[in-house]
């Protein structure tokens, strides 16, 4: 394939002059003299879709990535014609199409350049496979930055990098390794305080070059399929990312327990070991909600079986764990062992559900069980069959979560570690080879698993996770960053990758805390927990070959520090759950990299150590050994040190002390942070009071709190509570207004409030404009704590009586 820019102008084909263009309500289609079609569809005022065809016909319009329920409606769609130029105008942008060469330029309404094209669309015929290699070159303006692209283990800002998307099992991967488990062909670009996004909806092997070959050029191309991409205008990064996430869909809310701490290892067996593990967590009062069983729970690694020697009565074990507050999560891989006596194998064989090579034989490959065949999850019938297989595991045995692995798909001992590209797939009725289906195989397996677990977990919510994924796969599953290593560099990588995934629509994600391969020191484990408790998915997992990785394996000090941090996560669950609500409802990422938080501040463009957890907590993990602190960049605004309430004014870097027990955590001033009491597992105790930590600000700040029954689907019928707290503070007075939406009634009656950083002494309190005595509120002036009833519209504290 031609990727050299000089050759591009020689060996590639380009659109000719536009001969006709047609308008049909929400799109315009251009045809050129050499039979190229370009259809530009306006999805929203800030979202345009571009599709190109080179033989005068479009392929069947089918995408696994796009969430069909979203994206309709725009305010304005106007077309202006001028010599050699057609302009599409919406209420947000102008898109200019040159009729001489079909090159596109996109501008804001003041004609500022957002992005223009260099070579623009071009293609190369693929004689080997048929079809085209489709390519796009755009110009990059001075100072442009690039973010996104899924799980790439590289620097956060992608400027100067060339990357490929091809899902790959990469045990013990290293920094800057290119092909990894997931493919998310979406990036956000930022220049001149304007952000836009490109989502290249093409599941073939795709490539991106962010100004590496040429410093003023961005390229993306695919080894087949259509040039089919979405342009998303901001101008805020937040708008680009949420629009992309809505375009490709969001998941339902997970059950609250899934946001607790998970403990995993390859593998906990036999049953006695699992029971001991569970008992140890409770004995040490180390919070934990889920125990994961890796491949050894199965009989001979055969999916949907149990090793009866090690697990004689799985249902009873799962019940016993449940009684102690543990949910059981089990692994399920795609490889089905070739074994004529194995029911699942026979069913799939009889129904022709396995993938085949081009000339007919089944796709055969080695994974944990030895030689396997692989279901074609791109076939809707196969997905339905697969979903049904969870009846026993979830519906009868009571397993609460399923973890899909090796679904890149991974094949052992073969070049490329995956299927050969001739393997055939159904692709939901759009028959194709593995070249097209490879990157979405894992996503479709995850989808089938999710459908099954959801069905049999009902009326509870499912928990599913997957290692491989594609854009849009966030609708089905949580994910993790795969087989990392217990090194400081991997702690840094985990931080970067999880932020990157959050900017790529996949917020429900975390890393193998402590590292999967090798063994961490107690110090590394502690620092990793201090990061991991702020990741949307929080699980300790390790290969187990290199020693134990339970929190008590590193001695008393590590145990007691990590327990405090995991307890902090449990205290912050209402805050985290609210961030999940905003993610699932509005597509807002749960972690916000600093550039997302404040894109006007150029200091954030290359920062990735610090991030915002939810909306108002700044976290900066310690990522080096033997340090007692670090420099932290504070975004603009004022921040309270979580540990001592000292106030820091942002827009600058400061040294922050961080002995092993103190990881840097800061709270935005004006924030109202909801907290639960410490629990050993979600719903262990009935919540009698919700804690609200209020951080005084001379000014205004809005905080929100989402609550529901923690599980089940009543929230979809309006049984949720969404509270908005509007804080207004000035010397001598604070006012908090509360507004509630939704029908859910929380079980607690009052709020335990604590006001931090209050610059005056409270003398008077008013609830809905009626004065209340401070004694009835149990007011403690030494720490500014009090109890207030949960129902109020307005509460006011003043340093003197109201005049
Ligand atoms: C893969 C997974 C890992 C798992 C192992 C055994 O390496 O990434 O998490 O423990 O397989 O199933």
Automatic annotation (TrEMBL):
What the entry lists under InterPro entries is as follows: DUF5110 (IPR033403), Gal_mutarotase_sf_dom (IPR011013), GH (IPR017853), Glyco_hydro_31_AS (IPR030458), Glyco_hydro_31_C (IPR048395), Glyco_hydro_31_N_dom (IPR025887), Glyco_hydro_31_TIM (IPR000322), Glyco_hydro_b (IPR013780)
What are the Glycosyl hydrolase family 31 C-terminal domain coordinates in residue numbering?
A: 587-673
- Upper classification of the organism: Bacteria, Pseudomonadati, Bacteroidota, Flavobacteriia, Flavobacteriales
Protein name as it appears in the record: Glycoside hydrolase family 31 protein
Write down the superkingdom of origin.
Answer: Bacteria
Q: Which residues form the Glycoside hydrolase family 31 N-terminal domain?
A: 38-209
Domain Glycoside hydrolase family 31 TIM barrel: from-to ranges: 251-579
**Where do the DUF5110 domain residues begin and end?**
690-757
């Amino acid at each position: 394939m031609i990727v050299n820019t000089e050759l591009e102008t020689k060996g590639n084909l380009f659109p000719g002059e536009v001969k006709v263009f047609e308008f049909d309500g929400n799109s315009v289609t251009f045809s050129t003299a050499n039979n190229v079609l370009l259809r530009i569809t306006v999805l929203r005022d800030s979202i345009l879709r571009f599709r190109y065809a080179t033989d005068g016909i479009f392929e069947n319009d089918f995408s696994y990535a796009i969430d069909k329920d979203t994206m309709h409606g725009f305010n304005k769609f106007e077309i202006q014609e001028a010599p050699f130029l057609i302009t599409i105008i919406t209420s947000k942008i102008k898109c200019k199409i040159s009729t001489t060469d079909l090159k596109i330029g996109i501008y804001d309404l003041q004609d500022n350049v957002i992005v223009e094209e260099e070579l623009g669309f071009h293609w190369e015929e693929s004689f080997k496979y048929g079809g085209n290699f489709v390519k796009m070159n755009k110009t990059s303006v001075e100072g442009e930055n690039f973010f996104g692209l899924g799980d790439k283990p590289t620097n956060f800002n992608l400027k100067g990098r060339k990357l490929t998307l091809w899902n790959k099992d990469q045990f013990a991967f290293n920094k800057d390794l290119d092909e990894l488990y997931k493919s998310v062909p979406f990036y956000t670009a930022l220049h001149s305080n304007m952000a836009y996004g490109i989502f290249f909806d093409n599941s073939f092997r795709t490539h991106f070059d962010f100004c590496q070959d040429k410093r003023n050029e961005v390229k993306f191309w695919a080894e087949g399929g259509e040039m089919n991409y979405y342009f998303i205008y901001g101008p805020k990064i937040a708008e680009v990312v949420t629009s992309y996430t809505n375009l490709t869909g969001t998941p339902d809310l997970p059950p609250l327990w899934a946001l607790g701490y998970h403990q995993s290892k390859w593998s906990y067996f036999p049953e006695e070991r699992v029971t001991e593990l569970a008992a140890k967590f409770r004995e040490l009062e180390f919070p934990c909600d889920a125990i994961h069983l890796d491949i050894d729970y199965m009989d001979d690694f055969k999916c949907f079986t149990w090793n009866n020697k090690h697990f004689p009565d799985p249902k009873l074990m799962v019940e016993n764990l449940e009684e102690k507050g543990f949910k059981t999560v089990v692994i399920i891989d795609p490889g089905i062992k070739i074994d004529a006596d194995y029911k699942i194998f026979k069913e799939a064989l009889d129904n022709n559900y396995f993938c085949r090579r081009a000339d007919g034989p089944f796709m055969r490959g080695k994974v944990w069980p030895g030689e396997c065949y692989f279901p074609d999850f791109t076939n809707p019938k196969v997905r339905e069959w697969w979903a049904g297989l969870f009846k026993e595991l979830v519906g009868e045995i009571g397993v609460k979560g399923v973890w899909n692995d090796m679904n890149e798909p991974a094949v052992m001992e073969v070049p490329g570690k995956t299927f050969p590209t001739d393997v055939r797939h159904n692709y939901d009725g759009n028959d194709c080879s593995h070249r097209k289906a490879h990157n979405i195989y894992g996503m479709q397996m995850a989808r089938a698993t999710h459908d099954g677990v959801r069905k049999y977990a009902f009326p509870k919510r499912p928990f599913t996770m997957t290692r491989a994924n594609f854009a849009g796969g966030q609708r089905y599953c949580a994910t993790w960053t795969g087989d990392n290593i217990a090194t400081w560099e991997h702690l840094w990588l985990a931080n970067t990758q999880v932020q990157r995934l959050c900017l790529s629509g996949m917020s429900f994600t975390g890393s193998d805390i402590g590292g999967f391969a090798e063994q961490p020191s107690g110090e590394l484990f502690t620092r990793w927990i201090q990061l991991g408790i702020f990741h949307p998915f929080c699980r300790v997992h390790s290969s187990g070959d290199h020693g134990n990785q339970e929190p008590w394996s590193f001695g008393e000090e590590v145990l007691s520090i990590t327990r405090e941090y995991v307890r902090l996560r449990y205290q912050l669950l209402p805050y985290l759950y609210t961030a999940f609500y905003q993610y699932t409802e509005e597509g807002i990422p749960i972690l916000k990299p600093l550039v997302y938080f404040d894109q006007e501040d150029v200091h954030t463009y290359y920062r990735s150590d610090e991030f915002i957890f939810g909306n108002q907590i700044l976290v900066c993990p310690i990522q080096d050994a033997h340090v007692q602190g670090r420099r932290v960049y504070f975004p603009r605004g004022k921040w309270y040190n979580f540990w001592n309430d000292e106030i820091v004014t942002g827009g600058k870097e400061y040294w922050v002390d961080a002995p092993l027990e103190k990881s840097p955590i800061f709270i935005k001033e004006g924030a109202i942070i909801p907290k639960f009491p410490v629990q050993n597992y979600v719903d262990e105790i009935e919540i009698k009071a919700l804690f609200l930590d209020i951080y005084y600000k001379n000014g205004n700040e809005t905080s929100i709190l989402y609550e529901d029954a923690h599980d089940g689907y009543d929230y979809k019928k309006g049984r949720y509570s969404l509270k908005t707290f509007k804080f207004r503070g000035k010397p001598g007075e604070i006012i908090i207004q509360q507004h509630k939406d939704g029908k859910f009634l929380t079980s607690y009656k009052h709020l335990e409030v604590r006001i931090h950083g209050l610059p005056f002494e409270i003398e008077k309190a008013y609830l809905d404009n009626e004065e209340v005595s401070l004694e009835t509120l149990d007011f403690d002036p030494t720490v500014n704590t009090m109890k207030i009833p949960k129902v109020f519209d307005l509460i006011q504290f003043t340093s003197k009586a109201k005049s």
